[in-house]
Amino acid sequence: MGASDSTSASGPLSDRDPVVEPSKPRLLKMLGPGLVTGASDDDPSGIATYSQAGAQFGYGVSWSLVLTYPLMVAVQMISARVGRTTGHGIAGNIARSYPRWVAYAITVPLLVANVVNVAANLGAMGDALKLLVGGWQLLYVVLFGLICIAMQVLLAYKRYVAVLKWLALALLAYVATLFVAKVDWLAMAKGLVIPHPSLDPSYLSIVVAIFGTTISPYLFFWQASQEAEDLKEKPRREPLVERPSQADRAEERIALDTMVGMAISNLIALAIMTTTAATLHVAGTTDIESSVDAAKALEPVAGSAATLIFAVGIIGTGILAVPVLAGSAAYAVAEAARWPVGLSRKPREAKAFYATVTIATAIGIGLNFTPIEPIKALVWSAVINGVVAVPVMAILMLLASDPKIMKEFVIGAGLKILGWLATIVMAAAVVGMAVTSFLG
């Protein structure tokens, strides 16, 4: 070994090779699928969860983000390595290694949950823009939905990925809100490092929601498929099972990309929790049902600047997350069905794949015109995601440990331990979700 993603057996690549971007710092070249995946995790639905956690319990549940970080990193790193090693996404590998019904049993619930999430995120984006400029919320929902479809269907893959990376900057809005909140930094630090366990059903419920929001199946499918997608876009890269010499640098890049992406995801979640703990919780505003509710509630206690920043963040993260949600569903469905797949293909070359992207987003738009309450829909979406996550993670661990699939690149003991631990934690979260629902 010793060659890398940016070198091959024939020697260093030329400056014209699409793998190398010499004008960029090395760190920026190494950030890609992991960065986008981590950023998309802080979508408007996640923002609502973190806002509710901070508003209801102050700094008392911040510790959960410290616990989720290594588990997120492990699962996403395993997902990425499956894609980079085999050249196929998770659903593609399941379809090649298990009966086809297993792939469909996994992907259909994922599709349903993603569509509901798309609908809720579009609704939150529409509400946020209405909060900022007034007007008709449903018109904004349609506009944002069309923008998200156009990004995936019309943009060339390389430009599309660049747009997603830039959209990750929208997360800085939530760092900015910290400067308009009077944070008790000592209390925040204690909440971060000292767990405060409680059997209160509402406390258990919010901890389960945090785990379900941060470790979500669509993120696994997206990062694995993007690693496989990059192989088509960057010709000198090949699946590691075919070009083992590229493994060292590939695994180094995946590790850095994933650790940075998940760190950004959790730091932004912490910023949201901290802001709402320092403002809404202190003011006694503890009932937050959506990200826009949080933005509205911030104004009387933190000023109009906080509301503006929070609302802009909702729109920016939504434009990032909706294409990832629809795209991950399309990757899963198309790979399970063995259709031509990939955003690097032209629409005419992968008609069913792009149709799935478009239909998933269009249904998400349409759900906003129905009497279905977005919050209740999100609850059911979280239930579906939580239930689906456990078998997906178990199968992912089996795939990544199978030498028939991964050859000599099966995951090591460290990733196995963390991966199975994450699976057990998610199974416990599903049980916790059932218990808290039973307790009301």
TrEMBL record:
Q: Which UniProt keywords apply?
A: Membrane, Symport, Transmembrane, Transmembrane helix, Transport
Tell me the protein's name. Answer: Divalent metal cation transporter
Pfam families for this protein: Nramp (PF01566)
Q: Per UniProt, what is the membrane topology?
A: Multi-pass membrane protein
Q: Which organism is it from?
A: Mesorhizobium retamae
Where is region (Disordered) located?
A: 1-24
Q: Which residues cross the membrane?
A: 61-80, 101-124, 136-157, 164-183, 203-222, 259-283, 303-331, 352-372, 378-399, 420-439
Instruction: Kindly list the places in or outside the cell where this protein is found, as annotated in its UniProt entry.
Output: Membrane
Q: Where is the composition biased (Polar residues)?
A: 1-11
